[in-house]
Amino acid sequence: MSEHPGDRPEYPTALGASSVDRITLLGRDLAADVMGEVGFGELAFWLATQRRPAPGETRVFEAVLAALADHGFTPTAITARLTYLSAPDSVQGAIAAGLLGGGSRFLGVTEDCGRYLHDVLAAAEGGHPADEAGWDELARTAVRAARETRRLIPGLGHHVHKQGDPRTPRLFAIAAEEGLVGPHLSLFAAIGRVHPEILGRTLPLNGAGTCGAALADLGLPLELLRAFALLARTAGLIGQLAEELREPVARDIFLSVDLNNRAVPPRPYDPPA
Questions:
Q1: DSSP secondary structure code for residue 222 in this structure
Q2: Helix, strand, or coil (residue 268)
Q3: Which residue, 42, 80, 195, 198, is the most exposed by fewest CB within 10 angstroms?
Q4: Domains with residue ranges and CATH for the chain
Q5: One GO CC term of this entry (predicted)?
Q6: How far apart are CA 165 and CA 149, in angstroms?
């Protein structure tokens, strides 16, 4: 903002700016240099980091978006469909309703896992391990600490894919092909290897957690990892609403509850001791 009293304030931005005959975005001419030249995934990465990603980074980033776009009739999808049933004049409300359900159980795991891995790496003494044995030892320390504090490790376990999330090996493979397996993915893989010996059971590394590790290795802001999951899910919710238009199920979901409710006596809230 200008320091001279009476001057118009200025608000600097490296993002979109418009003049009478031109629009710029990230320092490029939007019409000539971006439209038809830059894919949406690449542009989303560029907007968040203000640096153009390398092709390999774009491939990993777009693989993450694909992995998180849609998982069927999850609470976020059902909420979007029911909201659209209630307010068909407000598609933005339906999409927003679905996105608001992105929390610690659905979608939020992506950010939670990235932050968790970052914290473990930041607390590690002596820098990052040099080999797989070193990563395994760091992972053992982290898993033991989580068990002692009764903390669940974000990204470990899945309610459906109990024998392995099919997205996980594919994301690791794509990152490896592009030379982008960094410390977060390396630590997460090590957690996958060593946790059975400490927890006494084997849990899969889920796709949402792997996405968080991959995004963190791309250097994206940890504070925005959930936002990228929401970006991906927006496309999925549009697909859910498009299918709702063709093959509606929201009314059946609503009626299955409305016509099958059972009246019970009031039960006052009993606060925990």
A1: G
A2: coil
A3: 198
A4: 19-52 (no CATH), 109-222 (1.10.230.10)
A5: cytosol
A6: 26
